[in-house]
Amino acid sequence: MSGTLDQVAAAAGFVDRTLQNEGAWYRADDVEARLGGQLASYGSSVGAVRGTVRDALRKYKELDHDAVVHLASALWGQPGPGSRAVFERRLAAVVLLQSTRTLLRHSDLTRIEGFLRSAGTRELTEPLLADVVAPLVARLCGRDRQRAAVVLARWRTDSDSQLRSAAAFIDQQAPLQGDTHERSL
After folding, report:
1. Spatial contact of 137 and 148, defined as CB atoms under 8 Å apart
2. How many C-beta neighbours within 10 Å does residue 122 have?
3. Close Cβ partners of 99 (under 8 Å, ≥ 6 residues apart)
4. Alpha-carbon gap, residue 181 to 163, rounded angstroms
5. pTM (2 decimals)?
6. Which of 55, 83, 105, 176 sits most deeply, having the most CB atoms within 10 A of its CB?
7. Distance (Å, rounded) from C-alpha 118 to C-alpha 112?
8. Residue-wise pLDDT tens digits, 115-137
9. What is the helix, strand, coil percentage profile of the chain, to 5?
10. Which residues of 149-168 are buried (b: 16+ CB within 10 A; e: fewer)?
11. 177 Rama class: left (phi>0) / alpha (psi -120 to 50) / beta
């Protein structure tokens, strides 16, 4: 496990350094203003974020399920004590999950729930829902599908409007009621 954590730390450091190097102050100012100062910004372009994640996945080829979800969590969090979370790091976490979504499991919905609760902007929640959660839920079957249904049922009644909206989106994209996928087998 310590080898995985070392690899995750190295990959997170690579992504963070690269995003900082790709940043521009004028884009950082624009992002921070657009997001109302909720998140810090390095000012990296979306293309730079995507390229950085692609390069990280090439450099750290042995990232398995556990390493991917730990890396996504590391990128989603604060880069250091006392600092604000960074928009581009969070976007990199979304791109990472998009790129590795076939590794994800129903149990990852709880981690993603935390991301949705703290995202603070549709620029993060929309791709997370459309490109990660919806495809994940759509491919589940059997007990995994039932377990995902329990999580989504909880989201539907949560006091957080972000989660209620997420559940409504998933219901439209990958409905779990009736489990027609299993019956067609």
Report:
1. yes
2. 12
3. 53, 54, 57
4. 25
5. 0.91
6. 176
7. 10
8. 999 998 999 999 999 999 999 99
9. 75, 0, 25
10. bebbeebeebeeebbeebbe
11. beta
